[in-house]
Amino acid sequence: MKSDAKRIFSNASSLFILQLITYAISLAAVPYLVRVLGPSKYGLVILAQSLITYFIFLVDYGYDMWGTIQIAENQHDKKRLSAIFHNVMAGKLILGGIGFIIILILTVSVDKFREERQLILLSFGMICGQILIPSWFYRGMERMKFIAYCLVSVKAGYLLLIFLTVRTVADYELVPAANFIAYTLAGAYGIWTVYAKFGLSFVPPVFSEVLRGLREGFIYFAKAMTDNFAKITNTLILGFMAGDAAVGFYGSAEKLMDAVRAMLSPVFQAIFPHSRRTAARSKAEWFIFIKKAGVAVTAFSAVLAAVIFIFSDFGVRLVLGEEFMPSVPVLRMLAVYLFFFTLNNIMGAQTLVCFDRGKAFLNLTIGAKMLGLLLSFLLIPAFSEKGAALALVSSEAAYSLFLTIYIIKSGLLYDVRRSGM
Which of 33, 228, 307, 385 is the most exposed place for a label (fewest CB within 10 A)? Predict the structure, then answer.
């Protein structure tokens, strides 16, 4: 038990520290870009990134969860690890090809996307790196430092290219080009580590196994997609209904919040493999673990949210500048979202998924996110970027309520606690 706790702490600590570095590097580009590009062009860049995020989830599919589980269960079997790795990579390449066809269709058929076709196609370029970086493999092996190395490489390369190439508002298309180059180079490094550091060997993908991964990973893909659907779609609806400047105000606040939310991601990623194994081994042991971990992570999240809410005015003025002061109320609402986001990870991924309640998890997620989508259409026309933020917070709070009601009514918590008596 102590060795498990030590490994989790080591994984979480190393990834936490290194992700702080990567997001500090990433954030360094934001003040520069918002001042060079202004709200409208920066908003266009954010709009294109939001569209591409759909395809990032497509190529990640359910592999971030399903692949992690498969690797975690076969950590000491290199032959099996090699087979899993190449089957997953084959699936990701197939999905990437499908995504590219869809994006070509969109840039021909949708007027706003056709006008910015080059920007969107360059933004899609980062999908190459997303396919290649085997973060799901590292998580399953509980070797989080390799994820951080890739992230540092991506962000440092991106920042350097931004400062070297983006000089005027006309250079806005070079922002996704920098992302494309940095992600692809980091992806190449990621593939090298799999063979050089973990000793995997090439195993030709087996079509039936690729299909199995797609089939069994679908529920995780659907969950991840629906979980983030409202967040991504908010930005797109905002761009079509309120204009590029509104996207700039909303997107810049979201960038700041994403940097803060990244402080929690290493903890979630480090907890999940252990939480899954513990739940399979002993409900009582899992309950003791998740009670301690859940309280600690939620308390940390609450402190972060409070600090952001209180100092949002100062933070926006310092990082984004006076021109972006409309981002302040957005950032405050996103601080509240951060707290609910943490609660939902503890009740969802760390609880329902670990006890194979995936179908219920997906249904609850869909219900909450569809509510968020409805609220976006209702609130954005009236309140612009503030309406987008309010819709996001409201759907996440509703999600917390749905998860709580299900856990209580299903008797899951009662069963877990009774097993320890």
Answer: 307
- For residue 199, the surrounding DSSP H or E stretch is none
Gap between the terminal Cα atoms of the chain = 20
| Token pair of 271 as six digits | 């907890």
Block residue for tokens 């990973």: 217
For residue 168, give the DSSP letter.
S
Tens of pLDDT, residues 15-50: 566 666 766 777 788 899 999 999 999 999 999 999
pLDDT at 37: 94
* DSSP code at position 353: I
Query: Cβ contacts of residue 374 below 8 Å, gap of 6+?
Result: none
pLDDT digits (tens, 9 = 90+) for 41-99: 999 999 999 999 999 989 988 888 888 888 888 888 888 889 999 999 999 999 999 99
Render the burial of 30-53: b for 16+ CB within 10 Å, e for the rest: beebbebbbbebbbbbbbbbbbbb
263 Cβ neighbours under 8 A, 6+ residues apart: 16, 19, 20, 23, 304
Q: Tell me what the mean pLDDT of segment 249-269 comes to.
A: 81
Phi, psi angles (nearest 5°) of residue 167: -115, -30
How does DSSP assign 98-158, residue by residue? Answer: HHHHHHHHHHHH-HHHHHTHHHHHHHHTHHHHHHH--HHHHHHHT-THHHHHHHHHHHHHH
- Per the listing, tokens 């990701």 go with 92
Residue linked to tokens 């089939």: 215
CA neighbours within 13 Å on the CB side: how many for 167?
2
CB contact at 8 A, 27 and 256: yes
Residues 51 and 113: beta-carbon distance below 8 Å: yes
